[in-house]
Every structure is written in structure tokens, then in C-alpha cells.
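Example 9 (inverse folding). The structure is encoded as follows.
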């Protein structure tokens, strides 16, 4: 029953247990991870093209992704706002111009274009493309191994993570508040409960959640999960400059897994250097837990 969970966790923790300190090797790992993400998203697009009743299912994808994104953002927002009462973060005035939000949005949308490109190729229904799903499964194992190495090399020790009370608490609130969001999503859409819970457990890491969900539930749910977490990231990019001064805890939590990488420069520029360790710990924990929780709800 739990073989799928073990298959996902083994390469992730194998990579995490492998200490890599050589800068050139880490550069190769990071570059390889980027390529693997694009390859797998391309294969996900191909798989989507083979779905029956395609036009109808595209509408289903839009409905599922928008509903789940609204539910998880609302539940996260309510829970994180409650935390603002007893948890505060040091925030100072912006030290310089913020990174272009338009540029960041376009960077995120590149992932969509890769899926669309794969979808376009898949429409040819060339016979070798029928193996895209299996190829994606093997590529996923490689990607999880590289993710484990990257997490280990992030410079965060377990001591730093466990003793950063603010970042750990924010991550815990994000993870726990995603559970009622998953239940509400499942009830609203008529999905199995475990599917709704898995859908809201990506914590904004769209390049991973879409792949894992595709392997577990098929390309329709996988594409919905991808768009759900992409919407979360885009909303975060827009809200950071608006909310950071008065609702720092909330906005760091809303960023989810991206607070340790993609949205970190915006958080740092808008809220100051003091917010960086909290954001990194929140992003690290949610990044580590995303594949675990998705796999747990996919068994």
C-alpha cells in the first residue's frame, strides 16, 4: 500500500544524506535539476494530450485549479493572520527597488509554456509518445534525488531549522491549515478526500506538485495541481510589497515553499535582511514536506 510513498521518499532522502560541498558539482546539480523540471513538465504536457474528452477535461482542470487555489489561500490566510497576534517578524523599509514583478511573473509562466509545448507535441499522437508517462516516472526519481542534494547543500543545518521558532511555526501553520483546505476542495468538487488533501499539499511548489500528482492521479489532476500552486506563487509575488509591512508572518507563509528561493529576493528587498532566515526555514520545511505529504495522500 505504501510502496509509492517509499519510492518517492527513497531518492529524496538518499540525496539529502549525500553531502556535496564542491561548488562545481553543486552547480551541475542545480543545472541538472532545472533541466529535469523542464523535461518532466514537457512530458506532463504530452500525457495531457492523450486524455479522453480533451475539451471537457480542460474546463475541469480550470475549475479544479481555481477552486483548490482559492480554498488553500483562504485557509492559509486565516490561520496565518491568527498567528500575527502572538508572532511578529522584524521588518524594515525597503533598501532599494524591488525586483520587477512582471519579470518574475513571466519567469513563472515559462513553466506553463513548457507544458503547453509538450501538449502541442502530444497532439500528434506519435506512437513513441505513449511512453511519456513512464519516462516521466523515471525522470521524477532522478529529480527527487537532485532535490535532496540541493536541500542538503542549502546551508541550513537541522539545528538551525529546529531552533528557528518563527520559521518553523509559520511552516507548521501552512501545512496544518492546508488540510481543511483540501477537505473543502474535495467536498466542493466531489473528489475523493485523499485527492483533495494531496491537491493542497504542494505549498506553492508547482514544478513538483504537478509531476507527483500526474503520476498518482493522472494528467487532469496533475495539471490542476500545477496550476493551483502556480496561482499561489503569482498571488504571492503581487502581495509581498503590499502586505509585508503589516502582515509579514502572513505573507511569508503564503509564499510557502518558494520563500527559500523564488520569492526570497522580493521578501528580502521589501522586508529587510532580518526576515531572510525565517523565510528560508519556512521554505525549507514546506519544500521537504511537500513530496512527503503528497505521497502520503496518494497511497
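The amino acid assigned to each position is listed next.
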Amino acid at each position: 500500500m505504501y510502496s509509492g510513498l517509499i519510492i518517492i521518499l527513497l531518492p529524496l532522502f538518499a540525496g539529502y544524506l549525500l553531502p556535496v560541498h564542491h561548488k562545481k558539482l553543486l552547480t551541475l546539480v542545480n543545472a541538472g535539476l532545472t533541466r529535469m523540471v523542464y523535461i518532466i513538465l514537457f512530458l506532463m504536457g504530452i500525457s495531457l494530450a492523450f486524455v479522453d474528452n480533451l475539451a471537457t477535461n480542460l474546463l475541469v482542470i480550470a475549475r479544479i485549479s481555481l477552486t483548490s487555489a482559492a480554498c488553500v489561500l483562504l485557509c492559509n490566510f486565516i490561520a496565518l493572520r491568527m498567528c500575527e497576534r502572538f508572532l511578529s517578524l522584524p521588518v524594515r523599509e525597503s533598501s532599494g527597488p524591488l525586483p520587477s514583478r512582471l519579470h518574475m511573473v513571466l519567469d513563472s509562466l515559462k513553466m506553463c509554456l513548457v507544458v503547453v509545448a509538450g501538449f502541442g507535441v502530444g497532439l500528434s499522437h506519435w506512437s513513441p509518445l505513449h511512453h511519456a508517462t513512464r519516462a516521466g516516472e523515471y525522470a521524477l526519481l532522478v529529480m527527487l534525488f537532485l532535490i535532496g542534494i540541493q536541500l542538503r547543500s542549502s546551508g541550513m543545518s537541522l539545528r538551525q531549522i529546529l531552533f528557528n521558532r518563527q520559521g518553523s511555526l509559520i511552516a507548521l501553520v501552512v501545512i496544518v491549515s492546508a488540510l481543511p483546505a483540501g477537505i473543502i476542495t474535495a467536498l466542493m468538487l466531489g473528489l475523493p478526500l485523499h485527492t483533495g488533501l494531496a491537491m493542497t499539499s504542494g505549498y506553492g511548489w508547482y514544478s513538483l506538485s504537478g509531476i507527483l500528482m500526474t503520476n498518482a492521479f493522472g494528467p487532469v489532476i496533475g495539471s490542476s495541481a500545477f496550476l493551483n500552486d502556480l496561482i499561489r506563487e503569482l498571488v504571492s509575488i503581487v502581495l509581498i510589497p503590499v502586505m509585508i509591512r503589516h502582515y509579514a508572518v502572513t505573507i511569508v507563509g503564503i509564499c510557502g515553499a518558494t520563500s527559500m528561493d523564488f520569492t526570497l529576493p522580493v521578501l528580502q528587498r521589501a522586508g529587510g535582511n532580518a526576515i531572510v532566515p525565517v523565510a528560508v526555514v519556512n521554505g525549507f520545511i514546506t519544500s521537504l514536506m511537500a513530496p512527503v505529504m503528497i505521497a502520503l495522500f496518494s497511497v
